[in-house]
Amino acid sequence: MGALTGRTALVTGGSRGIGRAVAERLGAQGALVAVHYGRDAAAADEVVGSVRAGGGKAFAVRADLSGPEGVAALWEGYDRQVLEHADGAGLDILVNNAGITPRGEIEETTAEAFDAAVAVNMRAPFFLTQQGLKRLHDGGRIINISSGATRIALTDIIAYAMTKGAVDAFTLTLAKTLGPRGITVNAVAPGIIDTDMNATWLRGNEAAQKSAADLSALGRVGRPEDVADVVAFLASDDARWVTGQVIDATGGSQL
Ligand code: NAP
Question: Could you tell me how far CA 77 lies from the centroid of its own chain?
Answer without folding.
Answer: 19
